[in-house]
Structures are given as structure tokens and as C-alpha cells.
């Protein structure tokens, strides 16, 4: 089967230019259009079939497909694809298979499969990978970016700074002044925004930022369990913990229980996401809701619009968060003399 790469090479143009011509885009010179169409005809490339496949195919790429976070995003993406009559292809990056990395060949092969729209979910992307994606003529939308994005990269996320601030203000309003923070990956843009919201709320309340109260670097239960134990073992431990994911909050709850503490009497805990695990936790979790299903829907809608018109927009989309108060937060209890 003749590929888009073969047509581009034969015509002496980039994958992006060949894609534009074969998809009927007008922003290519007539001479170049003629050259690409001649190459396609000579090589037996069916532009109409390819264009139809591209219009009806969206690839959504995860680095994790078992977490409640990912499944919620996938639910929204699937709903949007069905409603719009599009095919949704789901793939996962395998950490133990270097050959499955996002190489130039990978992007070219995606384009050759007739896929013109890509949604990545918490997938690290480098400048070089963004360039390869553009050269392959693939529209891209990034959900909760990790690593590099450019001013022209369309991102979908929640109002993470506002959510982090609201969670911290809730704990401050309950009288807590020693508030720990369990963070996510250092390269995670949403994670950094949640930390900044936490810091902003503390400063506005006249509380100095204490780096000893900030631990954790992954959205997962077991590492967060260990980090929470470290926080609670401090000479002056926190009376509350804001965890930047529900999974991290579950780690904090387990650490408190293992230390014989009662939640929320001895420790208040707030999470972030409002996934099913927040409602199924041993103690229903106070958490910041972010619209994960809606983020999946919007990502599919936007990437299809970009596939039709790459100049449609180039700005980030942030969907609103809000705090949901359940049973893991309560007022600061006075310390009793031992």
C-alpha cells in the first residue's frame, strides 16, 4: 500500500504539505498541488479514500489505561466520537518497549494509517516530537500536558491553580495552619499549577511557605503513602494534607490509619480529581472535582476541528473545577496535654 510518506518524498515536499493537498486544503501553491497530485496518481495513492479515513479517525494515546482518571477521560472521548460519527483508536505507550516510543517513524506511520488527529493524555512530549507531529500533518490536542508545549499547542486541562487554592482555603477556613502537600510529577503542568494555588492561599493567609511540608512526585497510592508517612513523622507534623490527586490522597489516608490516627479528627485530607476512588474510599474523600469526562469530549471535538482547519485556534482550554466536601476534612482540634 502506498503511504503518504512515499507521496511526499516523490513530490519533494513535507508530509504536512502532502497531507494538505490530498485533503483539499487551499493554502498550497497550484504548482505544488499539481506535483503532489501527480505523484499520488503515479504511485496509486487514493487521496479520496485517505482523506475519508483521516476525517473519520482519531487516535487517543495514554501512558496509563487502568486509573480512574484515564478511564474517565476515555469515557468522554468515546462519547464525543460516537456522537460525531468518528472512529476512535485507543493506544497506550508501553514503558517496557522502547520501540513503541514517539519516534519520527511512529508519527509518519500514524499519518500513513490515515489518522489525521491525535489526542495525548498526560504524555510527555519534547519539542522534537511536536515538530514531527506537525511535519506528519497530524492535528494534536494535549490533555494535562507533561513536559514541553509551544504557544501553538492546543491543551485541555482544568483550572488547576484555582482548584489548588480552593482546597487550601478550605483547610485554612477549618483552622489548619500546618498543611502538607503531596505533589505530582515535577514536569506536570497541572501539578505545578496546583502547587502554586496551594502556595498562593498560604501566603495570602499570612503563612510562610515551608518546603518541608511539600513531598511526593507521582500520582499513585504507594509512593504517596510513603511520602505521607514522612510528613507525619516530622517534629511539627501537618494537621492537614492537600494531595494533588485522589490516588495520592488515598495514600495519605492509609498512612494516617497505619499510624493510629483518626480522619478527620487527627488529620484532614483533601484530594484532587473526584474519581470513583474518592467516593469509594474507606472514608468518603473531600476533593476538588475536575471535569475529566468533559475534558475527553472537548479534546476530541477540538482535534477534529483542527484537522479540518489547523488555524481554527491555538490557545489552551481550561474547564472549571470546584471543591466537593465529604468526610475527610474537619476543624482543627485543640491539642491536649499528655
UniProtKB/TrEMBL annotation:
Stored PROSITE patterns: HTH_LACI_2
Keywords: DNA-binding, Transcription, Transcription regulation
Signal peptide: none
Record flagged with keyword Transcription: yes
Transmembrane feature ranges: none
GO function term, MF aspect, one: DNA-binding transcription factor activity
Domain HTH lacI-type: 2-56
Listed SMART domains: HTH_LACI
InterPro entries to which the protein is assigned, alphabetical: HTH_LacI, LacI/GalR-like_sensor, Lambda_DNA-bd_dom_sf, Peripla_BP_I
CDD domains: HTH_LacI (cd01392)
Pfam families in UniProt: LacI (PF00356), Peripla_BP_3 (PF13377)
Name of this chain's protein: Transcriptional regulator
Species the sequence originates in: Flexivirga endophytica
Amino acid at each position: 500500500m502506498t503511504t503518504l510518506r512515499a507521496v511526499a518524498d516523490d513530490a519533494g515536499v513535507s508530509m504536512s504539505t502532502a497531507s494538505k493537498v490530498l485533503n483539499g486544503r487551499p493554502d498550497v501553491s497550484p504548482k505544488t498541488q499539481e506535483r503532489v497530485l501527480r505523484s499520488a496518481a503515479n504511485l496509486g495513492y487514493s487521496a479520496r479514500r485517505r482523506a475519508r479515513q483521516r476525517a473519520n479517525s482519531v487516535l487517543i494515546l495514554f501512558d496509563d489505561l487502568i486509573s480512574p482518571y484515564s478511564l474517565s477521560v476515555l469515557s468522554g472521548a468515546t462519547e464525543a466520537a460516537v456522537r460525531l460519527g468518528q472512529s476512535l483508536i485507543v493506544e497506550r505507550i508501553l514503558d517496557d518497549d522502547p520501540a513503541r516510543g514517539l519516534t519520527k517513524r511512529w508519527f509518519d506511520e500514524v499519518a500513513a494509517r490515515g489518522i489525521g488527529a491525535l489526542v495525548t493524555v498526560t504524555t510527555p512530549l519534547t519539542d522534537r516530537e511536536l515538530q514531527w507531529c506537525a511535519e506528519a500533518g497530524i492535528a494534536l490536542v494535549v490533555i494535562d500536558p507533561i513536559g514541553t508545549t509551544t504557544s501553538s499547542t492546543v491543551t485541555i486541562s482544568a483550572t488547576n491553580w484555582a482548584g489548588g487554592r480552593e482546597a487550601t482555603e478550605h483547610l485554612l477556613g477549618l483552622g489548619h495552619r500546618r498543611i502538607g502537600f503531596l505533589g505530582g510529577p515535577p514536569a506536570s503542568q497541572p501539578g505545578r499549577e496546583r502547587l502554586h494555588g496551594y502556595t498562593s492561599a498560604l501566603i495570602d493567609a499570612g503563612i510562610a511557605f515551608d518546603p518541608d511540608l511539600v513531598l511526593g512526585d507521582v500520582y499513585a497510592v504507594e509512593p504517596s503513602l510513603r511520602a505521607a508517612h514522612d510528613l507525619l513523622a516530622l517534629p511539627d507534623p501537618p494537621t492537614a494534607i492537600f494531595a494533588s490527586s485522589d490516588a495520592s490522597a488515598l495514600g495519605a489516608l492509609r498512612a494516617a490509619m497505619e499510624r493510629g490516627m483518626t480522619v478527620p479528627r487527627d488529620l484532614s485530607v483533601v484530594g484532587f480529581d473526584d474519581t470513583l476512588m474518592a467516593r469509594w474510599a474507606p472514608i468518603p474523600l473531600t476533593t476538588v472535582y475536575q471535569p475529566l469526562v468533559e475534558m475527553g469530549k472537548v479534546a476530541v471535538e477540538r482535534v477534529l476541528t483542527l484537522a479540518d482547519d489547523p488555524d481554527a485556534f491555538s490557545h489552551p482550554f481550561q474547564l472549571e473545577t470546584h471543591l466537593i466536601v465529604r468526610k475527610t476534612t474537619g476543624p482543627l482540634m485543640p491539642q491536649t496535654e499528655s
